[in-house]
Amino acid sequence: MALHYILQHLDSPGTYARILFVDFSSAFNTIIPSLLQDKLSQLHVPDSTCKWITDFLSDRKQHVKLGKHVSASRTISTGSPQGCVLSPLLFSLYTNSCTSSHQSVKLLKFADDTTLIGLISGGDESAYRWESDHSGDSPVTTVDSFRFPGSIITQDLKWELNISSITKKAQQRLFFLRRLKKFNLPNTMMVHFYMAIMESILCSSVTVWYAADTAKDKGRLQRVIRSAERVIGCNLPSLQDLFASRSLKRAKKIVADPSHPGQKLFVPLPSGRRLRSIRTKTARHHSTGHSPSHCTCH
Prior knowledge:
Pfam families: ALKBH8_N, RVT_1
Number of strands: 10
Strand order of the largest sheet: 6-7-1-10
Strand content: 15-25%
Structural class: alpha+beta
Number of helices: 10
GO molecular function: 2-oxoglutarate-dependent dioxygenase activity; methyltransferase activity
Oligomer: single chain
Radius of gyration: 23 Å
Shape: globular
Protein name: Reverse transcriptase domain-containing protein
Keywords: Membrane, Transmembrane, Transmembrane helix
Helix content: 40-55%
């Protein structure tokens, strides 16, 4: 959604975008159960569920263990337990009121990662500056690239750094695949290992960057797959096939989720058999790798 907002905005002349990445320090530890309960009640969460969550977060025992030494227990009633599956959801609900007050500024939240996107037109950054000033009091520095959340986004919206990172990780995992080959692991098990350890890396956010990637970078990733094929001794899905299947799966998931902000992009034609294409003035939606630098990361 972040990339879509930016590309859609850059489709008009005289525009550019600024992105502010906000990192909350010990975010999950800041949750106050009583305030969270009020928030959940405002969101029409059943009262019994609100009380259950408040009880779960209150009066928790905690101690520290160092070797054979264990500290005395302390009772805490703030924050959410580390590793708790509810923590990201509870924090998102806890910060639900944190929204943008300007149409030209998009605020995206993913657990404790918050991103502020300023869609600038005519050089007027007042709305973006106002929102960024109210997002925190820490100094803001300009960077050429940023890992967001697991992919590297750059100022020129090219994906070379991201592909280099993915290629390096996948090549490192080839070592383990070769080691397993020496132990005569069955091909079926080798394929399962490849899918879990290597394919998952190669497909990280593939639905976002693949269409905008260069043929050279796609070739780099495909060579890693061919190397894995030689080690395992069987054919593996190509990067193009993986992109197509992942894109279709993602599209179906978005269409089936009325709360997803991207669902409105899937508009059927009157016939009902095909979807309406997104109208654009340029090819940036399809070839972001060749677009000029219009994006500044903070």
